[in-house]
Amino acid sequence: MTSRVSRIVSIAAVAAAGALMLAGCSSSGGGSDSATLQVQTNMAAGSPQLAALTKMADSFEKANPGVKLNLIPSTNTYEQDLKVMLAAHNAPDIWQTHGWSRDRYSQFLAPLQGESWNKDVNKILDPSMRDSSGNIYALPMVADVTGLLYNADVLKKVGVDPATLTSWDAFDAAAAKIKAAGVTPIAVSGKDNGPAGNLIDWMAPGFYSQDQLASLKKGTFQSDAYKPILDQVQKWAKAGYINPDYSSATSADVSKALGAGQAAFVFSQNTSAQNAFTTSPDANIGFFPIPTQSGTPYLIGGEGIAYGASKTGKNLADAKKFLDFLAQPANQETFAVAAGGVPGLTTAKVDLGKLQPSYDQWVVKAKSPLVPYFDRVYLPNGLWNTLVTTTDSVITGQSTPAAGTDQVGKDFQSLYGQKQ
To answer: What DSSP element (H or E) covers 175?
Structure first.
C-alpha cells in the first residue's frame, strides 16, 4: 500500500494539470470493475493514523480486487486544496471533513443516514454532525472527547494536582511554578494553521454565558465575553508561559515537547498525545476538564475524524462500500486507538490506551459536562482563520486583545450576513 500513498499536488500543479485531474480524480473509466478512488486523508505521512488507515485499505482491496484506493497524505494547505477541487467540480471520491461535514461540505457530500451504521453513531456527535432533519454526511471514525492535555510527571514535579485546576487563576499559579522549574507551561504551534485558534475554542465556552451563546447563534457578537479570552492569552505571552519558539514550532514539535516533559500543557485533541507517545513511549500524559472563569469545568468534543463521499462521484457505490468497511467495529476500534480518540460508533469499544484513566475519571465517573467546539456551533463558517490570525498576533505582540476582538467582531458580522 505504501506505493499508493502519495502527496497531493500543489495548487499550481492543480491549475496546470486541471484537465488531467478532472479525468483521474472521481472517475475510473471502468466502473466498479476497475475503480480507483482518491481519498483525501488529511493525515500526515508517517503518522499512526495514516498507517492504520493504510492497513485497512489493503484489507479492503484484497476483498474487493476491482477497487483501488489512492490515499493522499495531508499538506498544510489541505482546506485550500479542497476548496479549489470543489470549486472546479472536481471533488475527491472520499475526503476527511475535519469537523465540517454538515456546515461546510454537506452540499457536496452524499447523505449517509440510510447506511446500516447510522443508528450506531455516538449521540455526542449529533449537535455538530446532523442537520435539523437528522441527516448525516460523513462516517465518524473518531469522536473527540478531551480536555486540557498535560504531562503528569511535570505537574507531579512541581506539586500540582490537575484536579485542582478548576479556574484560570489556579492554572496561572501552576504555570508560574512550572516556569520556575525550567519547563514551558503552555506549548502552541505558531507555524501550523490552527493551534492558536484552539486556545479560543477550548476557553470560550467558559467565558460565555448561555445567553451570550444564544446571542451568537442569532448573529450578535459578544465583545465583552471575547476580549477577556484574548486578555488571558496576552497575560500568558507576557509572563513567558508560551513556548519561546512559538512562531517556528510545528504541531509535531509541540507533541514531542509534551512527551519529553519539556512542556506541561497543550490545547489540542488527543491525537497530540498519541503523537507524543511515538517519540516518548513512556510519557505520562493525561487530560483534565478545562478551567472556567465561573461555573463547572468541562470537556470539549464533537466531530473528530470523519469521512464523507462525493455525491457526484462516479465511484459513489464503491466509496460507500469502503465507508461501510471502515464502520466495522474492529476497524473503528483499531483506528480510534491509533488516533487516541473515542470511536465514532457505539458498536466499538473505547480504548484510549494511556489516556484511558483520564477518560474513566472525567467521563465515566465524574460525568463531566461535554461542550461542542465553540467555532463549529456558535460562529459562522469561515471565521476560523480570523480566530487563528488574531490570536497569533496577540501572542507575538503584534496586536492587542482589543484590536483582535474588534477584527473578530467585524468578520463575524460580515460572514454571518453572508449566510442569511
So the answer is: helix 168-180
Are the C-beta atoms of 7 and 47 separated by less than 8 Å?
Answer: no
User: Nine-digit cell at 269?
Assistant: 485533541
Q: Would you write out the chain's pLDDT as a tens digit for each of its 420 residues?
A: 433 444 333 333 333 333 333 334 443 333 456 899 999 999 999 888 999 999 999 999 999 999 999 999 998 889 899 999 999 999 999 999 998 899 899 999 999 999 999 999 998 898 889 999 999 999 999 998 999 999 999 999 999 999 999 999 999 999 999 999 999 999 999 998 889 999 999 999 999 999 999 999 999 999 999 999 999 999 999 999 999 999 999 999 999 999 999 999 999 998 899 899 999 999 999 999 999 987 899 999 889 999 999 999 999 999 999 999 999 999 999 999 888 789 999 999 999 999 999 999 999 999 999 998 899 889 998 899 999 999 999 999 999 999 999 999 999 999 998 865
3-state SS, residue 74? coil
**Structure-derived torsion over alpha carbons of residues 159, 163, 167, 168, reported in degrees to the nearest 10:** 50
The amino acid occupying position 260 is: A
Cα–Cα distance for residue pair 71/42, rounded to 1 Å: 10
User: How far, rounded to the nearest angstrom, does the alpha carbon of residue 249 sit from its chain's CA centroid?
Assistant: 18
**For residue 109, which phi and psi values (nearest 5 degrees)?**
-105, 150
**362-400 burial code (b ≥16 CB/10 A, e <16):** bbeeeebebbbbbbbbbbbeebbebbbbbbbbbbeeebe
pTM: 0.77
Phi, psi of 214 (to 5 degrees): -65, -35
